[in-house]
Design goal:
CATH class of the largest domain: Alpha Beta
Shape: elongated
Low-confidence stretches: none
Strand content: 15-25%
Mean pLDDT: 95
Radius of gyration: 21 Å
Distance between the termini: 8 Å
Structural class: alpha/beta
Bound molecules: uridine-diphosphate-N-acetylglucosamine
CATH topology of the largest domain: UDP-n-acetylglucosamine1-carboxyvinyl-transferase, Chain
């Protein structure tokens, strides 16, 4: 992506449905043989990968601009192959539903990724507590249980994926399952709402204690995916970093309170509406300190974008990452654009500078890529970002949406730049 920086963003931008809500709900369709119709679906690489995985398992998946209909009556396989799991870790979300419905599931171990080791031990311990027998062979995890049993599970850490996997598995288990220290992310609530519409009995989603009473079967569903809070936050930071004025629409401000609080602390003017947020930039941003935390704390998925913004602040900020190890790859790339960032393990100190200057940089993961785009929009001159394919995993029509706000950016094929 080639960005000509220095243009103030102005206008209105619609956000898409949440990728991280859509993926587990797509996996949940494995729990029922009925038709599942999902709307407000973002058109993203990760969603395509999940479609591919479900199709490979034997489901019929029809995707039609923003709507997907999935029917899993014809499932004839129970394994998620390495080829797909390595492309997208969220593939492990099929483990719980497949096991609960078919008594056996095999999922390739995800391995390391660009933002730390990301194991799935919490998912597996929970399934074992529900009576599953877990074995590891040739890099694949196999889980077996003729009938999962309800259990009381206390997570060591409120893992989003483990909470989702176990909540799905528990819907068809015998008896009651209680998940303590569960993740409270809005995507968990969206999954619980979808499962409830399928006939599941769930209480407490959105709190740290979720109770699931198992039922014998689940039916199909119709469900609208919640707006993407991370895409929303990314466009707000785009407005802030370019000294712009942008209204982000089709969103839900309630899901972004920690992000809005930090944006306000940087001095940005924020106006919240029922389904929209308007940011009017006040430059330069004031320095702030950020600590990433599980929801409702500051989201790790907004950390990179904020680090980019703080690189232009009028003083020194700090950012502590507590969710993932190795999630500061973007900091080194931001330095290439002139940012002054000192990395010390999972803690960075950002000394604000007056301006950034365009340079060639390399994207390393999805949110790091977004941070580089934001920095490129603010930098003087041309920024070339390589390995931009990461963005296709999480930002629908990014180039078009930013272009309509006045950004000058162009995507070129590898080799052209
Ligand atoms: C989800 C989101 C991701 C977001 C993250 C944290 C999806 C598809 N992805 O990822 O965008 O950044 O939540 O908000 O929704 N961990 C373990 N063992 C486990 C599971 C997790 O040690 O069994 C660790 C991870 O390595 C990581 C931390 O817990 O350090 C958080 O992981 P988790 O909450 O599970 O994130 P994901 O569900 O993978």
């Amino acid at each position: 992506m080639v960005i000509q920086g220095g243009n103030r963003l102005e206008g209105m931008v619609p956000v898409s449905g949440s990728k991280n809500a859509a993926l587990p709900i797509m996996a949940a369709t494995l729990l029922s043989a009925g038709d599942c119709r999902l709307t407000n679906m973002p058109q993203l690489k990760d969603i395509q990968t999940m479609c591919k995985l479900l199709t490979e398992l034997g489901a019929v998946v029809k995707f039609n601009s923003g709507e997907v209909v999935i029917n899993t009556v014809g499932i004839n396989k129970n394994n998620a192959p390495y080829e797909l799991v390595k492309q997208m870790r969220a593939s492990v979300l099929v483990l719980g539903p497949l096991l609960a419905r078919f008594g056996e599931a095999r999922v390739s171990l995800p391995g390391g990724c660009a933002i730390g080791s990301r194991p799935i031990d919490i998912h597996l311990e929970g399934l074992e507590a529900m009576g599953a027998e877990i074995t590891l062979q040739e890099g694949d995890i196999t889980a077996r249980a003729k009938q999962l049993e309800g259990a009381s599970i206390n997570f060591d850490f409120p893992s989003v994926g483990a909470t989702e996997n176990l909540m799905m598995a528990a819907t068809l288990a015998r008896g009651e399952t209680v998940l303590e220290n569960a993740a409270r992310e809005p995507e968990i609530i969206d999954l619980a709402n979808a499962l409830t519409m399928m006939g599941a009995k769930i209480e407490g989603a959105g709190t740290d204690s979720i109770k699931i009473r198992g039922v014998n079967t689940l039916s199909g569903l119709e469900h609208r995916i919640i707006p993407d809070r991370i895409e929303t936050g990314t466009y707000l930071v785009a407005a802030a970093i370019t000294e712009g004025k942008v209204e982000v629409v089709n969103t839900d401000p309630v899901l972004l309170q920690s992000v809005l609080k930090k944006l306000k602390q940087t001095g940005m003017e924020i106006k919240q509406f029922e389904r929209a947020i308007r940011l009017t930039a006040k430059f330069p941003p004031q320095p702030v300190d950020i600590v990433t935390m599980p929801y409702p704390g500051f989201p790790t998925d907004m950390q990179a974008q904020f680090t980019a913004l703080l690189s232009l602040a009028s003083g020194t900020s700090t950012v502590r990452e507590t969710i993932f190890e190795d999630r500061f790859m973007h900091a080194l790339e931001l330095e290439r654009l002139g940012a002054d960032i000192k990395i010390d393990g999972n803690f960075v100190t950002v000394h604000g500078t007056d301006s950034l200057e365009g340079a060639p940089v390399m994207a390393t993961d999805l949110r790091a890529s977004a941070a580089l785009v934001l920095a490129g929009l603010a930098a003087e001159g041309i920024t070339e970002i390589r390995r931009i394919y990461h963005l296709d995993r999480g930002y629908e029509k990014l180039q078009e949406k930013l272009g309509k706000l006045g950004a000058k950016l162009e995507r070129k094929e590898a080799g052209e730049v």
